[in-house]
Amino acid sequence: MMKLTDLLRFLLIALLATVALTARAQLSIEITGAGANRFPVAVAVMEGESQLPRSVTEVVRGDLERSGLFSLVEMGPRPMSEAMPPDFAYLRTRGADAIAVGTVVPAQSGKYEVRVRLYDTRQEAQLDALTLTMTPAQYRATGHKIADVIYERITGLKGVFSTQIAYVVKSGGQYKLQIADSDGANPQTALASNEPIISPSWSPDGGRLAYVSFEAKKPVVYVHTLASGLRSVAANFKGSNSAPAWSPDGSRLAVVLTKDGLSQLYTVNPDGSGVTRLATSSSIDTEPAFSHDGQWIYFTSDRGGSPQIYRIATAGGRAERVTFEGSYNVTPRPSPDGQTMTYIARTGNGFQVAIMDVATRQFAVLTDTGRDESPSFAPNSRMILYATEIGGRGVLAAVSSDGRIKQRLSVQAADVREPAWGPLPR
Amino acid sequence: MRYPLAASMLALALLAGCSSTPMSSDQGASVEDRSAGAGTIPTVRPDQPQGAGLAALRDPNNILSKRAIMFDYDSFTIRGQYMPLIEAHGRFLAANPQMKMLIQGSADERGSREYNLALGQKRSDAVKKALMLLGAKEGQIESVSLGEEKPQCTERTEACYAENRRGEMLYAGEF
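ok -> structure tokens follow
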């Protein structure tokens, strides 16, 4: 497997390097590794789509392709209507196990109705059908929703094509906290500052970001409502304030404060009130993250002499050590499904993204890069977005939880860091 | 650059030196001018030190113009070579209780940003404690961390990492 995937990866990188010459301000995604058994699916050009200025079909295809889980069966330029049952026998000879067909029809006030059906070609059965209404400008959002349905029907996991990511771009002396679609499209700047911004954390409803900004010449935790641009101070005590993490119900923020001495764990309300000390130690305690059920807070502590991952019950109690292997394990991020935890381990190759099974405590290193940091799970727990460095430049990368699928997201001529994958849209 | 602040102060001092030359000759010509007013009433700024104190902070020949303390790898102990510097600032703070100081601790870039923020805090706290032993008061000093976010040196060498493991002492008005 090693040799073949390495060769494949090399060829893909070589191919994509030539494609990537087109300069783009937004994040561009390269696939640098794909799943071993990709599901063959056909996405036919939707009938009537030529009425739209931009293709929805291409968005759906791009999403499925980039996921690394699907191989797209070439269907040619001929549109296939959702009103007509597809030719299953022919599709099987083409090697497609599933097909999506669709129709675009004009609706009221400049909008369009998009009707899509998904079929299993072997069972000759309809898997799903959906109707979406869109303005022509919403072609990407519509494509992402269709891809989400196809992904969920076939893999059994929620699609994350309609989600957003947050990250920090450093360009010259400027820092920008940006929000983009999960494919890197539509980047928008929520905060631009001459001072660093780190540790963005999405509220569970996706409406707010908590982060650390150094605009006051010291680290202060802010909560920023994305729709309005309004923000408030969540923690600005004497000393440093950092590492915000939302509780799963969105009612509390875990933060790290130094107001009583060393970096220690506290919780606050998002408006900055109700500060409560979570744990007391005579060591550094930082990087808190709630488990999916809110029962545990995972964190980094050097109480044992080297930075390692521990967890403590949210209700209080004794801290329990989670990592034992190696001399540097940091930035724990429990998966949304509760099964695993991702973190950064220092190995012989540097700092790498690792994953641990919460029940068995078995772990594996997932990446082949050596300057990884800030891992963040996709809401379906399938992919992990993280920051790394390639050619001396900060880039974002994503790796599947089994380590097989690898993607790279980069912005031309800028350092990208501190990614955080947003929740599923509500 | 090792002491960017000191260097900019030096530049300021040189500029001030240049512009003062014509002023002194003017003063020589206007000895008889006894008209009341301009320049004779000093402005009192309670937030800033009076007279010699402020000048000392900016005088490149004065130890008080030096502000940085470097730390060993994974260490939070102030090395002996910095004790004269700590003593000078500690005594200055004790003698000027209206002065406020911000200490920004830093770490080298290796590893987690948040963990490095905590390491920088341990360094700024170490500086704060040392200054307080010399008479500075808790209310005068805030120790914070910049983690790995504001490196003085951006090369990936041990020398550069060593320069970035630091505590920087800044007086009110300097940050």
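The first strand of chain B starts at residue 68 and ends at 70.
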